[in-house]
Amino acid sequence: MKSENKLVLAVRAHAYLNYEKDGWDYVCECYSDEEIEELIGKATTVKGAIKKVLADIKPMADYRAEIEAEIF
Question: Could you list the residue range(s) of the whole structural domain that residue 28 is in?
Answer without folding.
Answer: 6-71
